[in-house]
């Protein structure tokens, strides 16, 4: 297979080839760019290209930079023998061919100069161990010493060398195996998968940041359940996410069983993924039932219950985020909120739902109400298609009612129509419990529909509440309050 016409169509390759000839360095395009080119998966966004030369990658980079008429930012990493050039739509990385050896306690290799063959065999998978020549004698030829092309056609993830060696040397490759299988919808070769299970405990030497980066990439594929099933079957998931593993399994007492919450969760994640690419909404799907094992109880009258799992799950969320090295910011709070609220809309799937209940949901969800409704729709999983259809139609009614109530009462982003400062100024109060009580009663009155969400109505009620508490104004209210 030859890619001369493709190389000739892109100026970058012509310049690198010319630089390689000038420097007398045997040079190849390697890695993911080659794989995606063979698959026809050329990306339209920023393109990353890896080049390997037999010799100094830094010397090659310096020669490539001379090929451009304008200044090209050059980044050199002498300790690693690599260098990088950044162009408008391209990020080019150059490295000399090398061979590697590892120590058991670290994934950092001992690196030595090597041949192209040695450079390709150190790579993680055969589909990433192909090269395209930029040399005059075989320009454009695909070099494939480990049959990566065959594995691409067969849709197989396989290591170039013994997978036990590959994974023991660098255990992060185990997460990458599942990530590539998920992204490409490939199978994992039997021997390679067996090595995953045999070396799962080696994941302990990998940093949490590296693991979560791969997990997030798995979670962002169109059907994340496939990757999570592989993680579970290989025991990798057990190494870093025991709370999710605990969801798996079905208990039965007196012929009463509950559903397998692990596979239910995966179905919810897949359902959400059909609606949104939002990583954090997908994380909410992962964690929405995470506290069911901790809240599982059996009652002889009603069977299995999981009372309070939404509140317990919300409390567990920060700890899980912290341990997994996920961000402890508004993204965590978003996930926590959805976990806490995910049962609320289900309770509103009734014809007689009150405006008060709708207002409270809008108040609690705020701008995240649309994401919450997506999660709730995704949470409807049943083999009974008629039941699913009925629930989803009821959610349509709830969403319509939410729109009507929001348009009328504007409580999605509730701001108190009377501030604490105004209460203190009106009654000559200092910060105290009574100020908070007045504010809370006004809020409750609005959410219950007793008064409109308007400043003048809130001030009238404020006077009544204060009077009942023996507190009277020391200054006049704005004229609007008397209308």
From TrEMBL:
Its cofactor is Mg(2+). This is HD domain-containing protein. PANTHER family: MULTIFUNCTIONAL CCA PROTEIN. Belongs to the tRNA nucleotidyltransferase/poly(A) polymerase family. Transmembrane segments: none annotated. It comes from Algoriphagus pacificus. SUPFAM superfamilies: Nucleotidyltransferase, Poly A polymerase C-terminal region-like. Keywords: ATP-binding, Magnesium, Metal-binding, Nucleotide-binding, Nucleotidyltransferase, RNA repair, RNA-binding, Transferase, tRNA processing. Residues 257-381 form the HD/PDEase domain. The keyword RNA-binding applies. Pfam families: HD, PolyA_pol, PolyA_pol_RNAbd. It comes from the Bacteria.
């Amino acid at each position: 297979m030859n890619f001369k016409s493709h190389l000739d169509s892109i100026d970058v390759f012509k310049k690198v080839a010319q630089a390689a000839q000038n420097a007398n360095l045997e040079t190849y395009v390697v890695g993911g760019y080659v794989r995606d080119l063979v698959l026809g998966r050329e990306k339209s966004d920023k393109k990353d290209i890896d080049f390997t030369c037999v010799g100094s990658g830094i010397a090659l980079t310096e020669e490539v930079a001379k090929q451009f008429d304008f200044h090209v930012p050059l980044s050199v990493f002498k300790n690693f023998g690599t260098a990088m050039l950044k162009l408008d739509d391209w990020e080019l990385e150059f490295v000399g061919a090398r061979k590697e050896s590892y120590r058991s306690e670290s994934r950092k290799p001992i690196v030595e100069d090597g041949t192209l063959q040695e450079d390709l065999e150190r790579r993680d998978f055969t589909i990433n161990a192909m090269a395209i020549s930029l040399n005059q004698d075989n320009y454009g030829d695909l070099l494939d010493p480990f049959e990566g092309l065959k594995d691409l056609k067969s849709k197989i993830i396989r290591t170039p060398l013994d997978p036990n060696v590959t994974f023991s040397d660098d255990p992060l490759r185990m997460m990458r195996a599942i990530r590539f299988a998920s992204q490409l919808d490939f199978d994992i070769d039997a021997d390679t998968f067996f090595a995953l299970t045999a070396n799962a405990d080696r994941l302990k030497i990998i940093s949490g940041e590296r693991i979560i980066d791969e997990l997030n990439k798995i979670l962002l594929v169109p059907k994340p359940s496939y990757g999570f099933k592989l993680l579970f079957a290989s025991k990798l998931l057990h190494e870093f996410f025991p709370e999710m593993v605990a969801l798996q399994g079905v208990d039965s007492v007196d012929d009463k069983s509950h559903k397998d919450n692990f596979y239910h969760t995966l179905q919810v994640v897949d359902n959400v993924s059909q609606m949104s690419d939002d990583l954090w909404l997908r994380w909410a799907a992962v964690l929405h039932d995470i506290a069911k094992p901790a809240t599982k109880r059996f009652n002889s009258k009603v069977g299995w219950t999981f009372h309070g799992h939404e509140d317990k799950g919300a409390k567990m969320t920060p700890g899980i985020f912290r341990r997994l090295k996920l961000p402890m910011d508004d993204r965590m709070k978003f996930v926590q909120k959805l976990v806490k609220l995910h049962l609320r809309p289900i309770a509103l799937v009734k014809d007689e739902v009150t405006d008060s209940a709708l207002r409270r949901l809008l108040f609690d969800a705020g701008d995240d109400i649309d994401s919450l409704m997506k999660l709730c729709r995704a949470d409807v999983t049943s083999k009974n298609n008629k039941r699913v259809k009925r629930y989803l139609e009821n959610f349509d009614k709830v969403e319509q009612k939410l729109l009507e109530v929001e348009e009328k009462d504007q409580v999605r982003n509730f701001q108190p129509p009377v501030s604490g400062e105004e209460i203190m100024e009106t009654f000559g109060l200092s910060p105290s419990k009574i100020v908070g009580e007045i504010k809370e009663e006004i809020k409750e009155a609005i959410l219950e529909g007793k008064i409109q969400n308007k400043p003048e109505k809130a001030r009238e009620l404020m006077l009544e509440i204060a009077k009942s508490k023996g507190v009277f104004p020391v200054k006049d209210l704005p004229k609007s309050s008397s209308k």
